[in-house]
């Protein structure tokens, strides 16, 4: 199969092929408000609206659940508790026993207890307030520390070991112990969770869900209803943001709508209010890292004994894979010859945390960078000096703790480019001079090098399908298993198809993602959307193209390999046809113009039990240099400048990739500098709306923000047109912001005390690290 | 209890009947008009996905279009106004407004859910004739959260839109729309007679308001509605009988008098800004950080005072400036110093049947130093953790007199009396000891915005900042100045 871009006959390329910077496929619809999200769908005849009754205790026995007033409230059609669910009350994505509705016991504040469908949303909401629920409190574990002490875990501990850790500690010159913490993060997709379920004949149902994982929604709806997968079709055209929050969690909302639809035999729409969304659904795992390090005079780490504990919440959900990815990224860009990592997913009586852009990677890297910072502080060296002796590379220093060789290391090149283009050395000097003359405001500057593994850790998930129809007017219908949440996946895959057929992209129409067109899909996650689905679509396109080529060869009277697809036409000998004309010929000749494509990532394997293998098809790299300022009187802080160079291989669409980098970086900056999830002593989340939970606004972005793609760096692996994944990696580049703030704090209290800084680095956290708040 | 509301929607005449007073404009658009471009992202006026442009007739045959949050604006309040939603931006040939075209050109949308609201904020920016200054663009976008793009392309789109100049096409449309609205008004829009059932009253004279309140002291006054709208939309509260102040022009007047500025209780923040900039620039800078532009286009300083929140941002400035409030009822007027107005947590000196008519802010004396600061987790559109305002009078490089007021430190906004005393006679030497006097004035609470110890430490830090700023203008004292 020829996957290399076809150079066109006359030097012109089809518009919108790969590598071209073209706008998001829905951009015109976005700005006109005509892009349709689930809640914008027509209100079908008899549509009911749903509301959810939530627990207001963190951990308690339900002693009374009296819904009699709810049931007779105006407009109420259906009220459902755990006992009313037709199938199994279980929405676990991987394991089991993760209830949709709490039965007898609630395990977090905000847990769903009952669901209501009524003629209007206002009626459903008003009815919900009539529920009488009484509780008997049970002891609640609310923090990682409390859970660790109680040995309360949602899954068994994970261990990753390489080398002789204890032996290495005996040999090293220096040792230290350290600790680091980073908070959780709400996804704050602008579109809250929403789904609509439309019952059809017998047990059949169509579910429209704002989900990153239609197949899982299908499976879980079937489990809740006791229906075979073939009876349920799940569809999603677009999400108003996902970020991982609509990977496993969407099945709860879709499941609720489906159960109510089954019970009422009417279509049901459930759109969570912002508050309910933030109370009921999971977030990024907060993390506690503890480490003991052995290192030499240069700062080279010889031994590392690490604990990574994440707050899983009340059920496992995706915490296992999240923890696994954290373990697989605790090395970041550094070679750790002798290393032991113990991972704990702590069971707490708080909402079950879930996937969020980076999926454990950010948490692992928070620990990695804290290790570097601790060593640097101990030896009185800079972060960059310590990093320099620890980077992957050199004889025998190229294998990760889980046993994968780092063979495509672009880090040295990117580091050098950033150091030069961002004038790091000169700016460090300027900042030192500034700090010497500025008693109140202090500046800091730091680099952060990123290495991130691409592929789902679990090899099975690295597969994808696509379905393409070419119609006789030359227009192309593209359906693939990935979902569109704003990241431009539909566009990138359409570009792949346009490139393959050598037609302008306006002829490629991407349809909604549906489980009845492409079955058994993986979540659109792990940054792997275009890698996987782009390849599957290319396979489908190439299948059709081969058939068209045969027809053209016969028509032109030339050999098959003399037929060329270029810029909307097909050439052979002295003759040519438009793509539409050839499509029509194929139909006349009774040649199928429809094909499914499939792809599985080659060469990957992983043993989750031993945490060993080669789980990643390749690594992606990036470097950010950030400069920050702090106010030593109030803790206020600001990111003044960020310089980023990110390795995206041969970009499928540079403007889309730039957008992903900028957006991910600002989201990461929010995580590390301002977004604070705050629970009271009874386990109630008090920051569950934008009035109290602050994500970055336009003013918060770096005053000087420079983002570049690494030039001339096609992926060493034969990925889709040699591109690299982009969704998650740049999120972690924001660690440079945190480190720059820490550097500014260090300019006042010294490097060791600056290690006290915790993420998010809110004004209060900064003053605390400065020692001005006890 | 319903009302009839006459308004224009994207140039089309609308007579909405049987509107419940609690129906928000967003609900009206989405449910009753099925105009689905306008989105709900939070139902509390914080995310801006619901932004529409509210046009009030101006004196030039067009409209004063302002971005507002439709999720917390009650439909009854748009009687006699023109609403532009994202569906109304494209021209007759379906060509996009520059706000839309530039967002596409600069790749300013990803998931697209916040985009209609952002297009509307940019549209209002263009209609208001605002320029390309970065600070102004940030203010325009301060009430629009985007979780995908990182804002850079949106800022670029805004700059580019401004550079392209005013939309002549829309100027023409405004004139047509104005004729349509005037015709509708001639039929009775905005007429009190259209308010057909008790429970939502719209007085047009203060004496009517006096009588209404005397008769219904339990009724709630609806000014900008940016708090009440949140209670209705986010918490589904029934506010009970409402008296809308929307037609009381007497309450919206801002006068620059002999002794000071008189701010009508119904004047919005945005309307007050030019006057504040002239006389109390530090107050104006604080106002520009209250809510978002959408909020400030509706919210009133009077509402902020009567709300009596301990973290209301107007109060510390007005306390430090020695403002007085005019309280009015059917029995007449009385003047109360603002520091006697706040009685306890969310309790004021207002008696039943009484309302705030105006705020008197005396001019500062020549040479007085006025500074105001706000600390929050985020610069724009966040609620203060601590806020502070100071007026100092200097004499021979010593402080001769001081007024200091804080928000977020006690159950009400309050003056820091011990600190004021300690400041008198002090030099401008940076003094942690002096700043620590704050601990004698306040015992703040801990909550999700900040711990008690942070509030005290940072509050003291603001005193140190004050002294440093007054002493030496060359040293940076804020990260936002960089």
TrEMBL record, chain A:
Cofactors named for this entry: [2Fe-2S] cluster; Mo-molybdopterin cytosine dinucleotide; FAD; Mo-molybdopterin
Superkingdom field: Bacteria
Coiled coil residues, start to end: none
Keyword entries, A-Z: 2Fe-2S, Iron, Iron-sulfur, Metal-binding, Oxidoreductase
Pfam families the UniProt entry points to: Ald_Xan_dh_C, MoCoBD_1, MoCoBD_2
EC class: oxidoreductase
EC number in record: 1.17.1.4
Transmembrane regions: none
GO molecular function, one term: xanthine dehydrogenase activity
Family indicated by similarity: Belongs to the xanthine dehydrogenase family.
NCBIfam families, per the entry: xanthine_xdhB
Protein name: Xanthine dehydrogenase molybdopterin binding subunit
Organism: Parvibaculum sedimenti
UniProtKB/TrEMBL annotation, chain B:
UniProt-recorded Gene Ontology molecular function terms: 2 iron, 2 sulfur cluster binding; FAD binding; iron ion binding; xanthine dehydrogenase activity
Keywords recorded for this protein, A-Z: FAD, Flavoprotein, Iron, Metal-binding, Oxidoreductase
FAD-binding PCMH-type domain ranges (all copies): 193-366
Keyword DNA repair: no
CDD domains: fer2
EC supergroup of this enzyme: oxidoreductase
Record-linked InterPro entries: 2Fe-2S-bd (IPR002888), 2Fe-2S-bd_dom_sf (IPR036884), 2Fe-2S_ferredoxin-like_sf (IPR036010), 2Fe-2S_ferredoxin-type (IPR001041), 2Fe2S_fd_BS (IPR006058), Ald_Oxase/xanthine_DH-like (IPR016208), Beta-grasp_dom_sf (IPR012675), CO_DH_flav_C (IPR005107)
SUPFAM superfamilies: 2Fe-2S ferredoxin-like (SSF54292), CO dehydrogenase flavoprotein C-terminal domain-like (SSF55447), CO dehydrogenase ISP C-domain like (SSF47741), FAD-binding/transporter-associated domain-like (SSF56176)
Keyword Oxidoreductase belongs to the record: yes
Protein known as: Xanthine dehydrogenase small subunit
Organism: Parvibaculum sedimenti
């Amino acid at each position: 199969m020829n996957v290399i871009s076809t150079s066109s006959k006359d030097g012109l390329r089809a518009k919108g092929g790969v590598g071209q910077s073209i706008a998001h496929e829905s951009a015109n619809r976005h700005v006109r408000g005509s892009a349709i999200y689930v809640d914008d769908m027509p209100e079908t005849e008899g549509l009911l609206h749903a509301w959810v009754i939530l627990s207001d205790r963190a951990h308690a026995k339900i002693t009374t659940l009296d819904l009699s007033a709810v049931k007779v409230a105006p407009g109420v059609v259906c009220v459902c508790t755990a006992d009313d669910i037709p199938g199994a009350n279980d929405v676990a994505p991987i394991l089991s026993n993760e209830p949709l509705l709490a039965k007898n016991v609630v395990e977090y504040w905000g847990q769903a207890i009952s669901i209501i469908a009524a003629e209007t949303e206002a009626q459903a909401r008003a009815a919900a307030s009539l529920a009488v629920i009484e509780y008997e409190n049970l002891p609640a574990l609310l923090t990682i520390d409390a859970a660790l002490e109680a040995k309360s875990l949602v899954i068994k501990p994970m261990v990753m070991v390489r080398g002789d850790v204890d032996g290495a500690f005996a040999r090293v010159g220096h040792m230290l112990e350290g600790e680091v913490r980073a908070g959780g993060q709400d996804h704050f997709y602008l579109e809250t969770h929403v789904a609509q379920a439309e019952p059809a004949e017998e047990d059949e149902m169509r579910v429209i869900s704002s989900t990153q994982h239609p197949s899982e929604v299908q499976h879980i709806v079937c489990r809740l209803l006791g229906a075979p997968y073939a009876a349920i079709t799940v569809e999603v055209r677009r999400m108003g943001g996902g970020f991982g929050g609509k990977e496993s969690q969407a099945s709860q909302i879709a499941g609720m709508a489906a159960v109510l639809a089954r019970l009422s035999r009417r279509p049901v729409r459930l759109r969570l209010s912002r508050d309910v969304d933030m109370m009921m659904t999971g977030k990024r795992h907060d993390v506690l890292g503890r480490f003991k390090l052995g290192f030499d005079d240069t700062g080279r780490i010889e031994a590392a004994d690490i604990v990574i504990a994440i707050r899983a919440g009340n059920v496992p959900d995706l915490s296992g894979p999240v923890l696994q990815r954290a373990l697989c990224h605790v090395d970041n860009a550094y070679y750790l010859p002798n290393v032991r990592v113990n991972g704990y997913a702590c069971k707490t009586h708080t909402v079950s945390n879930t996937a969020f852009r980076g999926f454990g990677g950010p948490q692992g890297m928070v620990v990695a960078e804290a290790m570097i910072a601790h060593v640097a502080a101990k030896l009185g060296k800079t972060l960059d000096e310590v990093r320099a002796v620890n980077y992957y590379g050199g004889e025998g220093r190229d294998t990760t703790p889980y046993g994968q060789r780092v063979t495509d290391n672009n880090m040295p090149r990117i580091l050098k480019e950033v150091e030069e283009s961002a004038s790091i050395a000169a700016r460090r000097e300027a900042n030192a001079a500034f700090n010497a003359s500025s008693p109140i405001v202090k500046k800091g500057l730091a680099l952060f090098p990123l290495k991130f593994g691409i592929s789902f850790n679990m090899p099975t998930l690295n597969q994808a399908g696509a379905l393409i129809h070419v119609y006789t007017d030359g227009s192309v219908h593209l359906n693939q298993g990935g979902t569109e949440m704003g990241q431009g996946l539909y566009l990138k895959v359409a570009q792949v198809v346009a490139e393959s057929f050598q037609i302008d992209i306006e002829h490629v129409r991407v349809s909604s993602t549906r489980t009845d067109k492409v079955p058994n899909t993986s979540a659109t996650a792990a940054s792997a959307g275009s890698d996987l689905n782009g390849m599957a679509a290319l396979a489908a396109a190439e299948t059709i193209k081969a058939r068209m080529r045969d027809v053209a060869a016969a028509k032109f009277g030339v050999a098959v390999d003399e037929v060329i697809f270029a810029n909307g036409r097909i050439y052979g000998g002295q003759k040519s046809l438009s793509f539409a004309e050839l499509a029509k010929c194929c139909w006349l000749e009774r040649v199928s113009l429809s094909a499914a494509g499939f792809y599985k990532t080659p060469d990957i394997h992983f043993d989750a039990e031993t945490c060993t293998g080669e789980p990643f098809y390749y690594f992606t790299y990036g470097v950010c240099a950030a400069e920050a300022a702090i106010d030593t009187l109030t803790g206020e802080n600001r990111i003044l400048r960020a310089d980023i160079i990110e390795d995206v291989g041969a970009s499928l669409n540079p403007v889309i990739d730039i957008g992903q980098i900028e957006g991910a970086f600002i989201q990461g900056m929010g995580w590390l500098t301002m977004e604070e999830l705050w629970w009271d002593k009874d386990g109630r989340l008090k920051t569950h709306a934008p009035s109290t939970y602050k994500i970055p606004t336009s003013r918060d972005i770096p005053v000087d923000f420079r983002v570049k793609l690494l030039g001339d760096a096609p992926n060493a692996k034969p990925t889709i047109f040699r591109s690299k994944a982009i969704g998650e990696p740049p999120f972690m580049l924001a660690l440079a912001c945190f480190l720059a703030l820490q550097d500014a704090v260090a300019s006042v209290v010294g490097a060791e005390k600056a290690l006290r800084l915790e993420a998010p680095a809110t004004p209060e956290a900064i003053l605390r690290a400065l020692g001005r708040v006890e | 209890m319903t009302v009839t509301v006459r308004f224009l929607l994207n140039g089309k005449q609308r007579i909405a009947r049987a509107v419940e007073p609690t129906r928000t404009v967003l609900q009206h658009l989405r449910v009753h008009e099925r105009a689905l471009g306008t989105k709900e992202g939070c139902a509390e006026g914080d995310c801006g996905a619901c932004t529409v442009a509210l046009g009030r007739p101006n004196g030039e045959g067009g409209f004063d279009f302002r971005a507002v949050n439709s999720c917390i604006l009650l439909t009854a309040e748009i009687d006699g106004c023109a609403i532009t939603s994202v569906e109304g931006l494209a021209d007759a040939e379906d060509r996009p407004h520059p706000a839309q075209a530039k967002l596409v050109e600069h790749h300013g949308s990803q998931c697209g859910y916040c985009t209609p609201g952002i297009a509307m904020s940019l549209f209002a920016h263009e209609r208001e004739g605002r320029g390309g200054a970065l600070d102004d663009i940030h203010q325009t976008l301060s009430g629009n959260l985007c979780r995908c793009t990182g804002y850079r392309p949106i800022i670029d789109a805004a700059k580019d839109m401004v550079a392209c100049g005013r939309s002549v096409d829309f100027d023409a449309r405004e004139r047509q729309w104005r004729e349509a609205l005037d015709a509708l008004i001639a039929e009775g829009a905005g007429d009190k007679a259209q308010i057909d059932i008790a429970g939502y009253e719209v007085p047009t004279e203060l004496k009517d308001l006096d009588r209404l309140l005397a008769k219904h002291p339990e009724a709630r006054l609806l000014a900008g509605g940016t708090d009440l709208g949140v209670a209705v939309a986010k918490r589904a509260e029934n506010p009970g009988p409402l008296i809308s102040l929307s037609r009381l022009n007497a309450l919206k007047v801002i006068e620059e008098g002999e002794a000071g500025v008189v701010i009508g209780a119904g004047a919005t923040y945005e309307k007050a800004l030019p006057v504040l900039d002239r006389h109390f620039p530090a107050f104006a800078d604080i106002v520009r950080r209250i809510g978002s532009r959408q909020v400030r286009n509706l919210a009133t300083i009077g509402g902020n005072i009567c709300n009596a929140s301990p973290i209301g941002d107007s109060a510390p400035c007005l306390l430090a400036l020695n403002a007085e409030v005019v309280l009015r009822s059917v029995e007449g007027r009385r003047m109360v110093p603002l520091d006697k107005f706040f009685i306890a947590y969310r309790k004021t000196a207002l008696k039943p049947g009484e309302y705030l008519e105006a705020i008197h802010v005396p001019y500062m004396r020549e040479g007085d130093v006025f500074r105001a600061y706000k600390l929050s987790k985020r610069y724009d559109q966040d609620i203060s953790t601590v806020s502070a305002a100071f007026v100092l009078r200097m004499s021979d490089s010593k402080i001769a007199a001081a007024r200091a007021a804080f928000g977020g430190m006690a159950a009400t906004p309050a003056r820091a009396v011990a600190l004021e005393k300690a400041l008198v006679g002090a030099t401008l030497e940076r003094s942690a000891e002096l700043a620590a006097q704050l601990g004698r004035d306040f015992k703040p609470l801990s909550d999700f915005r900040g711990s008690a110890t942070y509030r005290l430490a940072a509050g003291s830090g603001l005193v140190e900042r004050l002294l440093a700023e007054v002493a030496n203008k060359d040293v940076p004292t804020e990260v936002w100045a960089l």
